[in-house]
Specification:
alpha+beta; globular; disordered N terminus; 7 strands
């Protein structure tokens, strides 16, 4: 969720991104759009809206320039992806594109300049990892940061002169039991563009990945009481573009099985309130989901509450039921799982590491 006292600005940004209303004050709205990498998407939406004629000329110029520059960068990144995927194809690897890299070939954005991206997320089968690394090295990419064997990705590879690093994935998210790469690949569609071959995840898996990445993976924003605006916007874009092809029943059943149904409904509630479309799930949000939304708003308005919420989330996220069940199996209780997990963690890494985890902000 955005930083303190920005709830009104979030709503104003959402209205502008839907082409429904212009803000009275552009400065905080543009600051928030920049913070969440939504400025090019803002121009795409407003340029197609009747509201464009009422925009201040200096705002039009600013948004046009950023959109154009982002589009130019994305064209270069797209060519970078084609070059790398072609090299992987020559080594008998057909990777899967994820997140921003995927949007450059398979929607949901209406133009190539609308979506800002930091890196190229590329997934290969675990058995092809070493071959893929060798291909990256031959193309001039050097490992900039390795993540360790237990991480869902091997690491970031950078190449001098290329605008985007390559994030080489072996799984989609760290809690891989929630959405395994092998099953996503089975449901994926082979795709060819510019003479290279890769896999595109199904619309259903793209929605699940969006939710998991935004709320459960890495920092665990759900547990910390945070809702990244850019992820909510992308969820709404996916739902609008692929709504008829998304298996919402599968999504609900999968996440309910891991006791993440309330988290899903809280996330979808926030997305539909800000950006639409209409409610897609079979169950309406209950009290727990609505209270979570209120918690996010209160934390966004108060640095003290935000510190408390983030600290609590840094503890509760790693001890979430789905993680403990995956680690310890079905025998025993959730309380017992968590006690054993904490004891093992402290015994292995010490109290200092535990305190560092509680204090982490990013």
């Amino acid at each position: 969720m955005p930083v303190r006292a920005q709830a009104g600005t979030v709503r104003a940004l959402a209205s502008a991104l839907r082409g429904q209303a212009l803000p009275a004050d552009w400065t905080p709205l543009l600051g928030l759009a920049n913070q969440h990498l939504l400025t090019p998407a803002l121009w795409t939406a407003l340029d197609a809206s009747p509201l464009r004629s009422n925009m201040p000329p200096e705002v039009v110029d600013y948004l046009q320039v950023l959109h154009r520059l982002n589009g130019e960068r994305n064209h270069v990144i797209r060519a970078q992806i084609v070059e790398l995927v072609g090299a992987l194809n020559e080594a008998a690897i057909e990777p899967m594109l994820l997140k921003g890299a995927l949007t450059l070939f398979a929607g949901p954005y209406p133009d190539i300049g609308a979506r800002m991206m930091r890196d190229i997320d590329l997934l290969v089968p675990a058995a092809a990892r070493d071959t893929a690394i060798a291909v990256l090295n031959r193309k001039g990419y050097i490992l900039a940061r390795g993540y360790g064997e237990e991480h869902h990705a091997f690491g970031d590879f950078a190449r001098s002169g290329s605008p985007a690093a390559v994030d080489l994935h072996l799984e989609l998210v760290d809690p891989r039991h929630l959405l395994r790469a092998a099953e996503v690949r089975e449901r994926a569609t082979p795709h060819e563009a510019d003479g290279v071959r890769f896999f595109v995840p199904s619309p259903t898996d793209r929605v699940v990945h969006n939710f998991l990445h935004a709320q459960i993976h890495h920092l665990g924003h759900y547990y910390r009481g945070e809702m990244p605006v850019s992820q909510l916007h992308e969820f709404s874009m996916l739902a609008r573009s692929f709504g008829g092809s998304i298996d919402w029943k599968f999504i609900e059943a999968r996440l309910e099985a891991h006791r993440l149904g309330a988290a899903l409904r809280a996330y979808v509630l926030a997305a539909t309130r800000l950006f639409g479309p209409s409610w897609p799930l079979s169950r309406r949000p209950g009290l727990r989901s609505r209270l979570h939304g209120l918690r996010c708003e209160l934390q966004a308005a108060s640095p003290v509450l935000d510190w408390i919420g983030v600290t609590w989330g840094n503890l509760s996220g790693p001890l979430a039921w789905h993680r403990m069940r995956a680690l310890h199996g079905s025998s025993g209780s959730a309380f017992g799982w968590r006690c054993r997990h904490l004891a093992r963690f402290l015994g292995k890494k010490g109290a200092g590491a535990g305190l560092a985890r509680l204090r982490r902000l990013a």
